[in-house]
Amino acid sequence: MSQTHRKFLLCLFSALLMLPMARVAAQEPLPDDFEALFNARAKSVVAVEMFVQNEIDREPVGAIGVVFDGEGRIILMDSAIPSWLPPERFKDIRVRPLGQDVEGFKGHYLGQDYLTAFHFIQLDEGQENFTPITEWGKADLKTGQFLWGIGVMSKPWHFMPYFLSSRLSAIEQLPWEIGFTVRAVTTPGSAVFDAQGRFAGWGGRPSTEEKLLILDATQQRPVGIQDLRETNAFLTVDRFYDFIQRVPSQPVGDPRPWLGATGLQPLSREVAQFLGLEGQGAVVVSDIIEDSPAAKAGLQSKDVIVALDGEPLPKLRPDVIIPRYLDTQLATHQIGDKVTLTVIRGDEEKQVEVELGAQPKVLKEAEREYYPELGLGIREFLLMDGIARRELRADVGGVVADFIKPNSKASSGGVQIGDWIKEIDNTEITSFAQAQQVLSAIESDKDRSEAVFLVERNNETKVLRIKLK
Questions:
Q1: Residue 24 half-sphere exposure, CB side, CA atoms within 13 Å?
Q2: pLDDT by position in tens, the chain (length 469)
Q3: CA–CA gap between residue 101 and residue 114 (Å, rounded)
Q4: How many Cβ atoms are within 10 Å of 16's Cβ, its own excluded?
Q5: Class of domain 257-358
Q6: E strands along 113-145, which residues?
Q7: Strands in 318-459 per DSSP E
Q8: For domain 24-253, which architecture applies?
Q9: Which helix (H) or strand (E) holds 107?
Q10: Which helix (H) or strand (E) holds 238?
Q11: Residue 238 CB coordination number (10 Å)
């Protein structure tokens, strides 16, 4: 067989493979005025740009979101903005329409919803240039349905919108309803529509595509690949409508309900079978925080939670979703609400009534201070830091190294981000205010030649000598 003949057969084979895909697309006619319909819906999708101010410079951040009401409010994915930073560090927020070489319109940060972790932005001007996504109605989702979405190019292309399409392959509860299409249908943070242009869902994080990496003739390894610009996963329209009702009342400090049990894990299949729980979900409690609502109610480590307020936990796939489902259900309550957990403890079933408390500070709420002479930024030690270090109480002392300037005195002395600073110059650090006082004194003392830090890093104690001259 000649090389020309082989090329012809290869092209023919490739064309035959594409025929079913082309036939699927052809079965779903688009409206005659689809280009106008596409351009109208593109006005609901925006590019949000800002700068994140750190201790010594600014870093640009960008994300895609959708406008969801006439007030010009915008929703962004949880990964769009660094959630651990205080909102006052978000500078010069600009909202840009797709495909236009314009500076954009000013906006400000509204906050992050603690249930979904989604961020919200408010347009301060230019609302008339955008159309709320809710103007397009709601699609009725069905398996096999033709869907299309708005892909968004990167900034050098002025966030130009482009057409993507696929078919709905499945909807899974993870723990919210997430739709999956056969192939990429939109950009993360952008929108999905049905053939008539009705809103079907909001683009989520791309799912991992499994591939084999062939190293040589005898070795191959499974790998996961994600397309950062396009996704085949989306939050369904009904859940989207639920979540846009949860706009935070302030950038930080919204009260959050809290149980105080950590390390929740799905029950293993073997134990579930032994306990007769194969048909439902169950969650094992790892640790209980001291003086937390869970501790006061008598919840114990190794308790198996099987129901919330009399409702058995659902059987979800994969099993790791079940603890997240329980967290989500608890987060829908208010501080002071009483919930009843049905638990299996040993060979007994018990009812544990818990009055939910207020969650302690999270990272974005932590006090921070930067010391330019040392090149060291610190933040207060939080309960979450203690949990990571098996200190299951709220009154732990010390501070955490939050920022290290390159080539600074702190960097040369060996201080690393994440170090738990427990002592400075043989003085035990019991509070953030005390650390501020000690470090300010070190910076102002021009005759001092050295400062000694006692830190804990990866469960090891280290003595670090910081040369000041």
A1: 14
A2: 444 444 433 343 333 333 333 334 445 678 889 999 999 999 999 999 999 999 999 999 999 999 999 999 999 999 999 889 999 999 999 999 999 999 999 999 999 999 999 999 999 999 999 999 999 999 999 999 999 999 999 999 999 999 999 999 999 999 999 999 999 999 999 999 999 999 999 999 876 666 677 877 677 777 666 667 899 999 999 999 999 999 999 999 889 999 999 999 999 999 999 999 999 999 999 999 999 999 999 999 999 999 999 999 999 988 999 999 999 999 999 999 999 999 999 989 999 999 999 999 999 999 999 999 999 999 999 999 999 998 888 789 999 999 999 999 999 999 999 999 999 999 999 999 999 999 999 999 999 999 999 999 999 999 999 999 8
A3: 35
A4: 9
A5: mainly beta
A6: 119-123
A7: 338-345, 348-355, 357-358, 368-371, 376-380, 399-404, 420-424, 427-428, 450-457
A8: Beta Barrel (2.40)
A9: strand 105-112
A10: helix 237-243
A11: 14
Q: How many angstroms separate the CA atoms of 285 and 268, rounded?
A: 13
Statement: 366-467 belongs to CATH 3.40.50.620: no
Record the tokens describing residue 280, joined without a space.
Answer: 């439902």
Task: Give the global pTM.
Answer: 0.89
Is 24-253's fold the same as 257-358's? no
Both tokens assigned to 39: 């351009």
Domain boundaries, given as residue ranges, for the chain:
24-253, 257-358, 366-467
Are the C-beta atoms of 305 and 286 separated by less than 8 Å? Answer: no
Residue 293: which residues within 8 A CB-CB, separation 6 or more?
A: 258, 259, 260, 354, 355, 356, 357
- b (16+ CB within 10 A) / e for 242-278: ebbeebbeebeeeebbbbbbbebebbeeeebeeeebe
Token pair belonging to 264: 């929740």
DSSP 41: H
Strand duo 161-173 + 146-152: pairing: antiparallel
What six digits make up the tokens of 170?
Answer: 């499945």
Name the token pair of 41: 């819906």
